[in-house]
Amino acid sequence: MKKFEFSLKKLMEYKQQILKKEKSHLGELRKQKQLLDDEISFITNKKRDNCESFNRRMCGGLSPQHICLHKNYIESLNQQINNLHSKKNALEASIQNQLEIVIQITKDVDSLEKLEEKQLEEYNNQLTKQQELFIEEFVSHKSFVTVN
């Protein structure tokens, strides 16, 4: 009997290759999200530190120009934070979509692997049956030869 070969081997290899690519893409999206989180945290800390510094300087007295300048700076930081949160929300939606793609392809690959296991089991059963038939024929031929 010829060696076992999965009939959908090429398809399974192709799906595994796609799965690897999609997982890589998901990893990149998660990395981008982490960078956005870091940037949001950095700007938030910068804003907090600036507000604390401003409050300390207010005790000593500041000119209206400095107060206005500080207010504009804080507004610009708030705008940056809002923009980054918008980007983060869009990126989270992309991550969720990509995760669904990865899950679907993983299911496809798993089903192909189960099918391969089933085909291998059938192959092994057929091989066992062939070996049993061969042994029976051998034994019956041997007993036939010794009887004559």
Short recap of the structure:
With 148 residues, the chain is an all-alpha fold. It has helices at 9-60, 64-147. The protein has one domain.
Could you describe the largest sheet, including whether it forms a barrel? none
What's the order of the H and E elements?
A: HH
Total helical elements: 2
Give the distance, in angstroms, between the N- and C-terminal Cα atoms: 32 Å
Strand residue content: under 5%
SS content category: mainly alpha
Give the % helix.
Answer: over 70%
Shape: rod-shaped
Domain tally: 1
Rg over C-alpha atoms, rounded to the nearest angstrom = 34 Å
List low-pLDDT spans: none
Number of strands: 0
> Can you give the mean pLDDT?
91
Q: Would you write up a description of this structure?
A:
The protein has one domain (9-147). The protein is built from two helices and no strands. The model has no long low-confidence stretch (mean pLDDT 91). It starts with 8 loop residues before the first helix and ends with a helix. The protein has 148 residues and is mostly helical.
